[in-house]
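INFO  loader      accepted 1 record
INFO  loader      residues=230
INFO  predictor   begin
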Amino acid sequence: MQLYVETAIAAPMERVWRRTRDPAQHRRWDLRFSSISALDGDAGRAQRFAYATRLLPGVVITGTGHTTAERARADGIRTSALRFASDHPLSPIARGGGHWRYTPRPGGIDFATGYRYRPRWGRAGRAADAVIVGPLMDWATAWSFDRLRLWCEEGTAPERLRGRALVNTGLRALLLAAAATALPGWAVAALAAAAVLLPVPRGVPAARRCRRRPAAPAPAPVRAGRGAVR
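INFO  predictor   done
INFO  writer      dumping tokens
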């Protein structure tokens, strides 16, 4: 199973680098994790880290990961390769590997990730990944990248951006609920489609703003090292 997400960020390379490589800052914008703790290393070198994702109150999936290679090219492109794994029985992902790529462009950088992973639970896990886990991971990664973009470009704290997203979603749901009590079914269906398709306000994170395919042929990523998922 593999995913690709890319966004253009109008901010300096070093700002984006710090906010993605420092575990304390990474945790703030990445919806996929409840916590990320460095086990060794720092934002400028290879790292080992532990992560946790809270599914429900009292249900926390844990795992570990480490960066396996760093590369800075003469043209300014930086790439960081990593591997991750979880032994938690409730984790739908057993292990995976991929890379982050930082490509300078006029006015900012293109920040992209590509990674592969192996689902847990055999055939049932692969079926669940195709229907639920994969699409959810794709959406959460893209939404998080757009939240990072807004943080780097506008300086709005990730926590405040999450609040804006909740308010935006809540208002749309409230309007639909109100319409359902007064309008015929076809009108409610039309409003539901509009609620999904209408543009998200500029200052609210939205997964749809991110690309799911490279805009141009991507430079070869750093290999994730021995044991990477293929």
